[in-house]
Amino acid sequence: MKQTLLVKGADGSWSNQVVSIWVLVMFVSQLGVLYWLGRTPLEPVAMSRNAPMHLLPEILFTPDTGPGPEFSDPTLFTRPNRRGFSGTAWSQFPVVKHKLIDWDESPRLFANRPAKLGATFRETLPRHLAAVSAVPPKGLAKQTNLTLPQLSLRAKSELEFLGNFSDRPLVRSVSVPDLPHDEALRRTLVRIGVNSDGYVVSATVPDRLAKVDTQQAAADRRALELLRGIRFEPVKRKSFDHPDLPGALEWGNALFHWRTAASPKPTNANAPKSN
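Below the sequence we write its predicted structure tokens.
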């Protein structure tokens, strides 16, 4: 039987079997050395006396200049220093001692030249002026005379119908009296509803609550009383907005223009009579 051991491969490299054998041999050798060294235990040796230990009171840092022991600064080799390796390359600057000097000088005032005051401003001003516009200046406004027409005062109080009742004839009208009051009263606007027979069955003053004047409130109540006595001409139902509804109303407005008359001043009965 022929046995062959492949030591090297075809390309000249070691085979896996040879490498494995050598690794196993080295491992066994290391175990043998460890066993041989550890078979005899080491005996502890007692010290006859303690070793002396010296503590430095402080570390003296070596400045760039001035006295001080060399190599006592721990930053001597990490930071630039005149006593380090680059000490010879440092420039030698002389130490300058500061001296205080009592300085006393009389004040020197600027000369006042009124002729040159504002000269720089006048030279710079034209460059910052606004552009001149070509629009001609606006002329003065012409005076206008306004002639206000004279206010026409009503000779008596009047009643005017608006809306749907402006052209509707009246069957029975009322006379609007003048009210005794020292000042003018506002007009009274009444919202009225008239049925097909021509009677006013609804009358309301829209802004009645906004009036706080007792005389004005009395005028509004007087207007409501006067509207109860008027009657319009009856019309057919087809002219109403809702002719199919019985008792439908036609709505409009009544405007009272009041004329006031100053109430007579009471006479003083105790006044002395002239002879």
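Residues 76 and 84 are 6 Å apart (CA to CA).
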